[in-house]
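DUF6164 family protein structure dump, as promised
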Amino acid sequence: MTTLLLNLRRVPDDEADEVRALLERHDILFYETTPSLWGVSAGGIWLTRPEDRQRAQALMAEYQQERGQRQRAAYEEARRLGTAPTLWRRLREQPVQALAMLLAVIALLLITLLPFLTL
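C-alpha cells r here:
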C-alpha cells in the first residue's frame, strides 16, 4: 500500500526538489502525483514500498528540522541586512496591486455593511 509522504500544497519548488533528491539519495522508491486542474488536489510525493515508510518519515523529520534552521538563519540575515520582506516594502514595490487590494477590501466592506447603514 502506498503512503503519502509530502502533500505538495504550498510547498516551494526548491523544497520539493530537495525532498526528491533526499529520497533518491537513500534509495527510497517514490512517485509523484500532479495537481488537479481545479485545485482540489495539490499533488504529492508518495512512497511505493510500505517498508520504507518509517525510514522516510525519520529522514523527513531530520530534513525539515535542518531546513527550518536554514530558513530562519536566512531570514535573520535578511533582517540584519535590511532586505527582509515587510509590508511597507511590498507596498512600495507593488503600489498598483496594493491599491487594487485596498479598494477590493473597501468594496466588500461596503457591500457587507450597506444593509445595516441604510434604515
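The radius of gyration is 22 Å.
lmk if u need the other ones
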